């Protein structure tokens, strides 16, 4: 019985990491990337998201609850994990390790990001270009957010690889190798988008280098 429960929890954890949490990550990066077109473009995109119908219900049931479950159960997995070099080999074992490390870091990073933005907005602050530019006026926050973006994109991309394996989508060594290349491409593409957005908040000219 306990084994069945753990099997279900791991499957649900894997699924929620892709849908809806992973999809939200991509959407969030796309909205942030509007900063490369200037403050007005970003503010317009951000305000569009804020004015969606049933916004709070969508945030609670499609973002926060799935994210909380994924984070809490992910921490359990991270601290229970045993690295298996015999099964996964050198490369996959390191991907396994980094997946756990980034997961722990992301719990801290996302909590801070939500505190600085969504919680601040609940107390009357406006989430706009100026808010983000003010955050990035601190050099430490620039580094912190860049590391957070890289951790998030790696965790999502590598999680996609694990999701495909655990859900029986990639069962052969060849399909898993192809999935490795595809997920690495996703990692580099999303990292480029995320960091370019950060640079746009610091100085719009930097995003065009």
UniProtKB/TrEMBL annotation:
Binding annotation for heme: 28, 70, 113, 155
A Pfam family this chain is assigned to: Sdh_cyt
GO CC terms in record: membrane
Keywords: Heme, Iron, Membrane, Metal-binding, Transmembrane, Transmembrane helix
Compartments (UniProt record): Membrane
MF GO annotations: metal ion binding
Membrane keyword on record: yes
Keyword Transferase: no
Major place of residence: membrane
Transmembrane segments: 12-34, 54-77, 98-115, 135-157, 178-202
Name under which the protein is recorded: Succinate dehydrogenase cytochrome b558 subunit
């Amino acid at each position: 019985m306990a084994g069945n429960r753990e099997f279900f929890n791991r499957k649900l954890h894997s699924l929620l990491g892709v849908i809806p949490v992973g999809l939200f990550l991509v959407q969030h990066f796309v909205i942030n990337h509007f900063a490369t077109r200037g403050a007005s473009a970003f503010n317009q995109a951000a305000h569009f998201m804020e004015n969606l119908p049933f916004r709070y219900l969508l945030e609670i049931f499609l973002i926060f609850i799935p994210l909380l479950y994924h984070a809490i159960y992910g921490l359990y997995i991270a601290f229970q994990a045993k690295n298996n070099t015999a099964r996964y080999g050198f490369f996959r074992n390191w991907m396994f390790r980094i997946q756990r490390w980034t997961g722990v870091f992301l719990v801290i990073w996302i909590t801070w990001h939500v505190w600085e933005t969504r919680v601040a907005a609940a107390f009357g602050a406006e989430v706009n270009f100026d808010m983000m530019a003010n955050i990035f006026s601190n050099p430490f926050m620039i580094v912190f957010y860049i590391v957070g973006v890289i951790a998030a994109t790696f965790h999502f991309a590598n999680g996609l690889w694990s999701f495909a394996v655990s859900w029986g989508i990639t069962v052969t060594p060849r399909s898993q190798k192809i999935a490795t290349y595809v997920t690495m491409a996703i990692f580099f593409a999303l990292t480029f988008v995320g960091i370019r957005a950060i640079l746009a908040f610091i100085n719009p000219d930097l995003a065009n280098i």
